[in-house]
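Here is one such tokenized protein:
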Amino acid sequence: MPSAMENGPKTRTIVFCHIDSLCCLPALNAVFAELGDDIGLVLSSRRFGSSHGTFWEQATAGFRRFGIPLNLWLGFDLVSVPIVAFFARWLSRVTGRTPSLATLPELARRHGARFVETSDVNSAETLAAVQACAPDFIVVMNFDQILQPPLIGLPKVAAVNVHPSLLPKLRGPCPVLWARARQERISGATVHAIEDRTIDAGRIIAQVEVPIDGATSVGELTTQFFSAGARALPTALARLAADRTAGQPQQLSDGQYLGYPTALQMKDFRRAGLRLCRLRHAARLVSAALGVTRWKL
């Protein structure tokens, strides 16, 4: 695939913020399939070290806060991606096949985007990198850092977030888990503007409803919801490019912000039938990321 640099100047420029996650790989690849040649800078969250704490510090805190099963699942979802990417590079050299689900650094390379890892997206160094890119948009999807006003104000058009729930319902870091735990029948994804530091609170640009099968795991729903949001993203950006004031303000009182569940809550959820993941779903994602099978976007 030719890079954006080989294709000539970008018609619009996007700064894309993300943290690699196994369940989000299909959505990530869908975003780059549609918008990759417009992405000039990729900001990847450095999850371990610095203010976030080391791997072991975070693991220990996670076990105490929300128990072993959820902590192991979250760890697997994040840590599996660089491991799979390492083996995928070697397999690709042997087989000559390009994996259908590429990771964030590989997608940035393919599209000629600058790739920057940051433990503080609001640092002076990161702000300088974004300013140098002169973006029309900042797009956030599955990112674990909160943008502050200096960064939010840098894009010419808007900063937007792809959130896996039907806002204002289920604001917060794990809305897919809460939708499944509360036995919601319908949820989905929202593309909303980031207007200030308030989490998941900006005006709604686009929403996509996704029905929830009662037997579906949190991992499967995460893939479905983010993929729905990724499909809605190009139209949402086009809408904002035509009218920077587009969108419907949220009524936050109609929803609720929910953080991570406690270990006790997780025990109750699992007794009620909640499944964090299914082996077959994880195996399909890993197989596609290795280049052994194809994933249809």
